[in-house]
Structures are given as C-alpha cells and as structure tokens.
Amino acid sequence: MSELKFEECLARLEQIVAALESGNLPLEESLKVFEEGVALARHCGRYLEDAERRIEMLAKDDAGALTTRPFAAPADEEL
C-alpha cells in the first residue's frame, strides 16, 4: 500500500464508500472492503501528516533561517 499515491487511495476510498452505500454487497464482502477502506484512510492520514511536516520544515523565518510554523494561506487567496 505504501506505493499508492494519495489520489489513488482517495479514488479507491470513494469506490468503497459507493459500494457499501449501495447495500448490494454480501456481508463478508462488505467486511472485506470496509477493512480495506480503514487501511486506506489510515494511509491517507499518514500521507497528509507527512505533507504537513514537510511544509512546516520548509518555512523560513524573517532572518532566512528554517523554522517550523503552521502553514496558512495568504488572506487574499481563496482555496
């Protein structure tokens, strides 16, 4: 699973949610895809935590020294 990209994990999670919401899967198959979904969600969470750490590590202070600080988008930019 570690070689999966974030976008691939997210797409698979969306497929799993749709399959579970349809209610058409047998119980055993529902449990199997649910377990896969939990693993994918954890993987995505770790990926996002790593990305946040990378952003914090790359932040520089006014003197040009690298410091850690939370990322905040400029007020004039909309996401």
Helix-strand blueprint:
Blueprint: H1 6-22, H2 27-58
Question: Would you write up a description of this structure?
Answer:
The chain is mostly helical and 79 residues long. The protein has a domain at 6-58. Helix content is 62%, strand content 0%. It has helices spanning 6-22, 27-58.
The chain-level structural class is: mainly alpha
Poorly predicted parts: none
- Report strand %: under 5%
Give the SSE string.
Answer: HH
Q: Tally of extended strands? A: 0
Kindly report how far apart the N and C termini lie. 29 Å
Rg calculated over all Cα atoms: 18 Å
Q: Please give the largest β-sheet.
A: none
The shape is elongated
Number of helices, where a helix is a run of at least 4 consecutive DSSP H or I residues: 2
Described by its quaternary structure, the protein is single chain
Descriptive keywords:
single chain, 79 residues, mainly alpha, 0% strand, elongated
Short account of what is shown:
The chain has helices spanning 6-22, 27-58. By secondary structure, the protein is mainly alpha-helical.
